[in-house]
């Protein structure tokens, strides 16, 4: 880069001040958080990420220096929003990945559900396989409850994502059930929230520890399984 194209010291200073302002806004949004997926926190996060990236670039261009922190980028893969300004309908798309790490635990929990529902033993064959046990558990429990109790069911969380898309009108009943994810217009994605071990791995490389992913839990035997609510 030529000297003429380099940012001025004042521009670098202004970018640093913008990062400070974005940090304050992000903290304020977190302190006022109304729920796990508060859109105000999401917006403040993206603003902070953009301000930090701009400062990092100017700092490098002017002084050949970088910042010691890295904020995961915003959803650069998505095009700018081009949906209705006042949506009359919305779709929420959720994907959660799991690994079956304790199949015996999974089978035992499914057997308990079936034992409570079929006192005469009918239908017990469904829990004889892992895929059958998964069908029983996901048929009995809501996906959010599976997510919050996944370790009880012998599962380990993988990546997850939630997309909120806007529409002009609600879809007709049954219109998209055969292919629920094929007709998504990226330009109508209002926001998205991603959870991935990638972010945790990046933190770990810098010496950070993620307590949420390393909780100690005794999974050696079935005796520590918590009873399920059979009356649901």
Report on the structure:
It is built from six helices and three strands. It has 232 residues and is an alpha+beta fold. Helix 1 packs antiparallel against helix 2 and helix 3 packs across helix 4. The N and C termini lie far apart (66 Å). The C terminus is likely disordered.
What is this structure, in a nutshell?
The protein contains six helices and three strands.
SSE topology sketch:
Elements: H1 9-31, H2 39-63, E1 89-100, H3 103-117, H4 130-140, H5 143-148, E2 155-167, E3 189-195, H6 197-205
Antiparallel strand pairs: 1-2, 2-3
Key phrases:
alpha+beta; 232 residues; disordered C terminus; 3 strands
Assess the beta-strand content as a share of residues. Answer: 5-15%
Total helical segments:
6
The sequence of SSEs as H and E is HHEHHHEEH
Q: What is the makeup of the main sheet?
A: 3 strands, antiparallel
Radius of gyration (Å): 24 Å
Distance between the amino and carboxyl termini? 66 Å
Query: What is the percent of helical residues?
Result: 25-40%
The outline comes out as elongated
Structural class: alpha+beta
Query: What is the number of E strands?
Result: 3
**Low-confidence stretches at least 5 residues in length (pLDDT < 50)?**
208-232
> What is the average of the pLDDT values?
80
* Strands ordered across the widest β-sheet: 1-2-3
């Amino acid at each position: 880069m030529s000297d003429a194209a380099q940012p001025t010291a004042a521009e670098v200073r202004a970018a640093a001040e913008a990062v400070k302002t974005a940090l304050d806004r992000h903290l304020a949004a977190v302190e006022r958080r109304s729920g796990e997926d508060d859109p105000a926190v999401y917006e403040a996060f993206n603003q902070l990420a953009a301000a930090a990236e701009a400062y990092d670039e100017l700092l490098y261009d002017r002084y050949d220096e970088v910042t010691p922190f890295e904020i995961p980028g915003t959803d650069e893969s998505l095009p700018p929003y081009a949906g209705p300004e006042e949506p009359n309908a919305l779709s929420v798309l959720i994907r959660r990945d799991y690994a079956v790490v304790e199949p015996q635990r999974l089978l035992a929990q499914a057997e308990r559900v079936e034992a409570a529902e079929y006192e005469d033993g009918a239908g017990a064959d469904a829990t004889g396989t892992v895929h059958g046990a998964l069908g029983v558990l996901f048929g009995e429990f809501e996906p959010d409850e599976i997510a919050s109790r996944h370790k009880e069911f012998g599962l380990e969380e993988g990546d997850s994502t939630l997309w909120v898309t806007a529409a002009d009108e609600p879809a007709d009943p049954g219109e998209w059930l055969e292919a629920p994810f094929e007709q998504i217009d990226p330009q109508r994605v209002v926001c998205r929230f991603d959870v991935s071990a990638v972010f945790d791995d990046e933190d770990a490389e810098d010496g950070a520890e993620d307590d949420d992913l390393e909780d100690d839990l005794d999974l050696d035997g079935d005796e520590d399984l918590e009873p399920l609510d059979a009356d649901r």
